[in-house]
Give the backbone structure.
Amino acid sequence: MKLLVTGAAGKVGQNFLARLRSQEAYADWEVVALCHNRKVEETGHVRTISGSLADAALVQRAMEGVTHVLHMAAVKESPDLAIDVAVKGMFLLLEEARRSPTLRQFVLISGDCTVGRIFHRYPEPITEVSPRMAYPGCYALTKVLEEVMIEQYQVQYGLRGTVLRAPWIMEKDDFKFALTFGSDQFGGPPWSALISAEEEADFAARGVVPLMLGATGVPLKRSFIHVDDLVSAIFAALGNPAAEQNLFNIAMNEPVDYAVVADYLARTRNIEAVEIQTPFHSNWLGNSKARLVLGWRPENDFEALIERAWTYMRDPGDPRKIWYPG
C-alpha cells in the first residue's frame, strides 16, 4: 500500500504519522508526505515531496502509485492562499485520484466550520445531513467547497471518498490556553471582541477562566475532539469499505459545557470563573454515525481535556506557536 499525506507537519499529521510508525499492521505501507512550508522527518518508510498543491506536475508525481490519500492540508484566514490550496489543490488531487488505476480511498479531514461551529443556531444535534452554513471568513468557505467537491467526485466518477468532520482539535495544553485571558490565548474568540481591555487585563492578572454564555444567556456548549481520538477515527476509516462514500462527524460524545468546566476547575484547582456574554449558539456535533458504522469511540471527555491540559509539561524545545494566521 502507498499512502499520500498532505498537511503531514500539522497537529493531526504529526500525531497520525507517530501512530502509524508504531503499528505493525502498517509496517509495509509506503508513505509520501507532500509538504510545503514545513517538513516532516524522513524515517523508515516515510519520504517527503516538497512543493505547492497548486503545482499540477508536482501533484501528478506525488500521486503515482498511491492507493490511499489522507488530505489534511489547509490554510486559515489567508485569502491569498485559499484558492490555490483548497480549490485548485483539491481539484488537482481529485483529478489524479479519479484517473488513478491504483487508488482505493481518498480521505478528507474537514471541520465543523462547514456547519458554522457556534456562529449559527441549530435546533437539534448537528448530523451529517444537517445543512452546511459556513461562518464568515475564507477558511470555513474553503472547507465547504472541499466537502462538496469530494461528494461530487463520488457522484460523477464513483470516487471512494471519506470525509471526517472534526470540531476544535485539542492536544497537549491547548485546552488550558483556550481558557486564558492572557496574551498566550489559544484560538478564539478574541476577548477584545467581547469585553473591554481593562476587564481583559484584570481577568488575566487574576488567573480566572471564562464561563461563556450563549446568545440566550445560558452557559455555552461547544463540541471538541482530542487529537488522539481524531487519529483513532482516521485509522478506523482508513481501508474500511464501510467508510467509502461517507461523511462522519468525529466529536466527543457530548459537547463541553462551559458551566460544567467552570465548576470542575473550581472544585479541583480552586480556579475562579467569570461570566462572559457572547453572541454564540450552543452546538452538539452528533457522532452516532461514526460510532455505528466505523465502530469508533472517543476516549477523551471534558475531564480528560482538562486533566491532560493542566498536567502537561511543555518541553522548552516545543514552544507554543500559531502556525497559520487567523
The CA atoms of residues 4 and 32 lie 5 Å apart. The longest strand covers residues 105-111. The longest helix spans residues 79-99. The chain has two domains: 2-169+223-253+283-299, 174-221+255-277.
